[in-house]
From TrEMBL:
Enzyme Commission code: 3.6.1.7
Gene3D superfamilies: 3.30.70.100
Keyword Glycosyltransferase annotated: no
Species of provenance: Pelobates cultripes
Catalytic function, reaction form: an acyl phosphate + H2O = a carboxylate + phosphate + H(+)
Name the UniProt record assigns to this protein: Acylphosphatase
Domain Acylphosphatase-like: start-end pairs: 49-139
């Protein structure tokens, strides 16, 4: 692990990280250095959070798995869960750009076998800090 003030990226220490970017959410950050979701600061637009519910043929088609994979790919944090009435719900957090990218993916892409009829986003707001350290599937 890098000394205080350093940043590990794919196991390599970076000691020349600007102070405002020197914070990382894990002992070994696997995100590209500048794409680490914890590296964003309020001065760069802050963090955003949005709740979502996806309607259509979204259960039994690996929608949660693909959602988790996509979120991890773009460095979003939050969660996804099936509901008892056939929808998928969750929350996504990250920079404004990350949240918008995830919203578009949830609304228009999903898993290969899914059919998205409607995506409802609610409670979208700027937050002072991320409430999750990763993205996971809840059961």
């Amino acid at each position: 692990m890098a000394e205080l003030g350093g940043h590990l990226v794919n196991g390599e220490a970076y000691e020349d990280v600007p102070a405002e970017l020197a914070f990382c959410h894990s002992a070994v950050c696997t995100h590209p250095h500048m794409a680490c979701p914890q590296s964003h600061t309020m001065s760069s637009g802050g963090f955003w959070s949005v709740d979502y519910e996806i309607y259509g043929d979204v259960q039994g088609v690996f929608f949660r798995k693909y959602t988790e994979d996509q979120a991890k790919r773009i460095a979003a944090v939050g969660w996804v869960k099936n509901t008892a009435y056939g929808t998928v719900v969750g929350q996504v957090q990250g920079s404004k750009e990350i949240v918008e990218t995830m919203k578009q993916w949830l609304k228009n892409v999903g898993s290969p076998m899914s059919r998205i009829d409607k995506a409802v986003f609610s409670n979208e707001k700027q937050i002072s800090a991320l409430e999750y350290s990763n993205f996971k599937t809840k059961y």
